[in-house]
Every structure is written in C-alpha cells, then in structure tokens.
C-alpha cells in the first residue's frame, strides 16, 4: 500500500501518539522498505528449514513443541502446527482488556513483525494492516500472562480472533469473531507455525499498556504542576519556594525544570502577605516532588522508546550479507550488500519483559506520590484552618450544603486504591512451565496495573481542579497571575459552582478531560 500523509508506514519507529491513534480506524502502510525486509526474512526462514541434504533443521516453534515441550517434535503439517501453537494458550480469564490497549498491542506486533526478523509472511502483515482500517478489535481476557515468553495468552486470544475464533468487538459491540470479521470485510488469517508463534511471542500488550499509562501520568503530572500554581495564587502564597537559585542548589534537573515552568505560570503573582512564613509541604516542596517525578518519568520514557522501536520475538532470523537465495542482507537494511557475513537463526530471550516491568513499577511509584500530592492539596483547600478562612468543605452554607465533602472522601478512596496497587510486580518472580520459565518479570501485570492507576490519578487531578474552581466561588481571591486567571476562567466556564449541592462525579471527569486539553505540551 502506498503511503499517504495520514498513513502510518511500518518502516518507521512508533511513538505513543501512534498507539493512541490506533484506537480508531487508521491507515497502516506496508511500505516498500517493510515489504523488502519481510520478503528477505521469509525466504531466509524457508531456506533454513532444510539443509543441502534435505533434512529438516530444528527451529523452535516451526519444527518443535513449545515451551517446556521444546524437546519434542511438533506437528509436521504447517496448518496443524499453527493450531499446536495457539490452542493450549486459550486459558485466559477475567474481563476483556480495554480496546485501546488491544489495538495498540496489535499495532506494536505488526510493526515488530514488519522488521523482517521474525520470518513471517508479508501476507500476515498485510492482513494485520488491513484490520486497522476497521473498528475490529479482538476480545482479550486480562489475566494469564507472566510477561516472560512475551504476552503469550493475551496475544493468542488476539490471534485466534483474527482467525475467526473466539470473540471480538466491531464498532464497540462484542460478538463472535467470525461474524465481526465478515461485517468488517476482513478475511480470517491463515497461519503456519512460525507465523502463529511470532504473533504471540512478544511483549506487545505489556509495552502498549505501559506507553498509554505513561502518557496518562505525564498528562496528570502537567495538570498537577499547573493546579499547584493556581492553588498558590488563590491562597496568595509567596513564590519564594520556586526561587531559581534555591532549586539549582538542590542539584536535581527535574526540580529546576519544574520550578522554571511554575515561575512562568505564576508570572505576575502578588502575594497576599497573610500566609505563614513557610507553606505546608504540599505547596512548598511541590517543585522537589514534581521535579523528582519528572526525572523518574524520563527513565520510563527511555524504556518506552526502546520497546516501541525494538523487536520482541524468539527465535530471530538474520540473513547474511549477500546472495539472492534467501540468505541475503540484513532485512533491516534497505538494499543489498556485497559482504560475506553468514545468515543465522538465533534462539534467545527478546520476549522477556523485564525493562517494561521495572519501568511500570517506577511509574506506579510516581503515580502514587503524585496522587498523594493532589489529595493533600485538596484536603488543605477544604480545611478552614489552612485555606485562608474559606468555609469548610468549600460549602456555600456549611451544614445546609456540603460542598466538596463527597469529592474529598472519594479522593481519599482513590489514593488508597492507588497505594494498594503500587506494590512492585517486577521482582515477584514465580517459576513456571516445568522450570523452563524459572524466572519471570510479570511485566504485563505491572503495566496493566499502572494503566489502571493512571486513570485514578486523572480523577484526582479532576477533583483538585473542581475544588479550586469552587474555592473561587466561595471567597478565594481572583488569581493575580494571568495564566492562573485564564485556567480558572476555563474551569468556571465549563463547570458550574456547587451551589446548591449536586452529584459531582461527572464534573470530576469533565475537569480531568479539560485539564488534559488545557495543559497538553
């Protein structure tokens, strides 16, 4: 398929914006560079299946059993070997994964296969690319992956749905997969053993969930940075805690960077002169906390970038530096070579999701501390002993009205849930698979857990934003910094004051969505 300005060529590295785009119909282009890689890799794979004597060469998954049963011969028929790969992996349980994760995972899988190192046919990648032009999405249960030999069980469900087995979604409606394929105008995938194994033997679900969670936490981090400025302005705080010399002396780049952003947002702030000499830590230490989060997110960014660009599969097939018989140049190169490097098939562990597991665990810690900050700032704002004399719970008539009391209670529950889920997963290895997988990273659990936590963090920022909007209604001063005044006006235009009491669940969600747009980079 030729590329267009709106299409996504598979020869280019992905970013998380592409993963988000994949939630809706998207044109994915198997460009000439990708097709060349695929064809060379497939020829090389077929050339390896038999040596000059015609004897079959053992290749994991193509000629063998799977996992702990690698020492046994696989099924001789290629279509049967596909079923041999997939049938036993139909053991997942639990609710379906969010569709945005499933489609993002399949985009990652498609791009990984298109690098030509997996030995799959171009037809498989063509059919995957065609799926993205529709709303088709496999129904994939949440539980079952240990993230060690890739995301075997969830990706097996996705692959089976693309074969017309199991269930899938079309236009958001769950139905049998064969019916969804027909309605979408797609044909069921036909696979051999190598194709099937390549589709399931990678960390695509883990990476997709981590990348989407990272984006959500970054959005919440930017929101909380801006909301902290609005809180400081509404209360009339002295901005000395953001002093450039002070933060540079701290020695951490994230704190200096965050302080610079906050000073820019608070440009024009006039202190009220009525605040204490030293603010509570939820204000005074905000640049240090938010800055440390920025530094930690930088590490997560690096892992996500590497995983989006990498190839996760086993084995990998590396054609040599010359020849036209399937032992050609490296499929990642765009043209032929004239060297003499021999081709090789390498059995290894590029499906082991430890980098993503560590990154997701760090992301969970960041999420928990950002949640703590948002909840403490909301608590400060609703407490008349610390909020500059505003009414308790920001109620217009305390006792007759209860203002933000329900929102503050819910925020406490959100923080408790985040903390409960922040326990690291990446070091909780359990041996499995007859000790073939004797150490596992649990990256899938870590990433999906971080995805859930990020949603709660967004609700906490929405809760704080609602509190700041209400504070202005019940007597807080007009912000003196232009950017803070602009944010408050945006919130006030979108969310009515709580006067009288009303259910606020939808308002919290609306505030979170508004912040995501207002503070986008």
Topology of this protein?
Blueprint: E1 8-9, H1 16-21, E2 28-29, H2 32-48, H3 78-86, E3 93-96, H4 99-113, H5 122-131, E4 137-138, E5 141-143, H6 152-162, E6 167-170, E7 173-176, H7 177-184, H8 193-200, H9 204-235, H10 244-250, H11 253-265, H12 281-284, H13 286-309, E8 316-318, E9 344-346, H14 354-382, H15 405-421, H16 443-473, H17 482-494, H18 505-518
Parallel strand pairs: 1-2
Antiparallel strand pairs: 3-5, 4-6, 6-7, 8-9
Tell me what the structure shows.
By secondary structure, the protein is mainly α. It is 51% helix and 5% strand. The chain has 18 helices and nine strands. The strands form four sheets. The protein has a three-stranded antiparallel beta sheet. The radius of gyration is 27 Å and the shape is elongated.
């Amino acid at each position: 398929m030729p590329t267009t300005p709106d299409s996504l060529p598979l020869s280019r590295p992905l970013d998380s914006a592409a993963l988000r785009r994949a939630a809706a119909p998207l044109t994915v282009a198997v460009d000439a560079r990708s097709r060349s890689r695929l064809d060379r890799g497939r020829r090389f794979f077929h050339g390896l299946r038999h040596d000059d004597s015609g004897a079959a060469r053992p290749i994991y998954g193509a000629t063998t059993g799977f996992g702990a049963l690698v020492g046994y011969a696989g099924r001789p028929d290629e279509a049967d070997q596909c079923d041999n790969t997939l049938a036993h992996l139909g053991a997942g349980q639990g609710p379906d994964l969010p569709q945005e994760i499933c489609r993002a995972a399949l985009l990652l899988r498609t791009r990984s296969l298109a690098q030509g190192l997996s030995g799959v046919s171009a037809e498989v990648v063509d059919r995957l690319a065609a799926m993205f032009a529709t709303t088709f999405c496999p129904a994939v249960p949440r539980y079952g992956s240990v993230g060690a030999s890739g995301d075997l069980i969830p990706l097996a469900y996705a692959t089976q749905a693309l074969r017309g087995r199991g269930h899938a979604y079309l236009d958001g409606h769950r139905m049998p997969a064969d019916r969804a394929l027909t309605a979408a105008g797609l044909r069921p995938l036909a696979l051999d053993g190598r194709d099937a194994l390549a589709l399931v033997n990678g960390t695509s679900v883990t990476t997709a969930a981590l990348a989407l969670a990272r984006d959500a936490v970054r959005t919440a981090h930017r929101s909380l940075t801006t909301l902290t400025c609005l809180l400081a302005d509404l209360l009339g705080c002295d901005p000395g805690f953001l002093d450039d010399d002070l933060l540079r002396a701290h020695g951490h780049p994230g704190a200096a960077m965050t302080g610079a952003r906050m000073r820019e947002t608070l440009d024009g702030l006039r202190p009220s002169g009525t605040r204490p000499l030293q603010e509570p830590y939820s204000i005074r230490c905000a640049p240090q906390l938010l800055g440390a989060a920025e530094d930690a997110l930088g590490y997560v960014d690096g892992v996500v970038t590497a995983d989006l660009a990498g190839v996760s599969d086993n084995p990998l097939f590396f054609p040599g530096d010359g020849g036209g018989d399937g032992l050609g140049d490296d499929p990642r190169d765009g043209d032929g070579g004239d060297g003499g490097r021999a081709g090789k098939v390498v059995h290894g562990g590029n499906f082991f999701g430890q980098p993503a597991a560590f990154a997701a665990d760090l992301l969970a810690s960041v999420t928990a501390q950002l949640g703590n900050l948002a909840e403490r700032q909301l608590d400060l704002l609703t407490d008349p002993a610390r909020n500059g004399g505003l009414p308790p719970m920001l109620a217009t008539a305390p006792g007759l009205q209860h203002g933000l009391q329900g929102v503050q209670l819910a925020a406490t529950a959100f923080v408790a849930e985040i903390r409960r889920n922040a326990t690291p997963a990446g070091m909780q290895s359990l041996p499995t698979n007859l000790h073939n997988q004797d150490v596992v990273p649990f990256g899938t659990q870590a990433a999906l857990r971080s995805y859930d936590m990020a949603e709660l963090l967004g609700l906490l920022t929405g809760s704080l934003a609602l509190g700041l909007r209400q504070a202005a209604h019940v007597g807080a001063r007009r912000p003196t910094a232009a950017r803070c005044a602009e944010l408050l006006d945006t919130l006030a235009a979108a969310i009515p004051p709580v006067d009288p009491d009303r259910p606020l669940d939808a308002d919290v969600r609306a505030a979170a969505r508004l912040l995501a747009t207002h503070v986008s980079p």
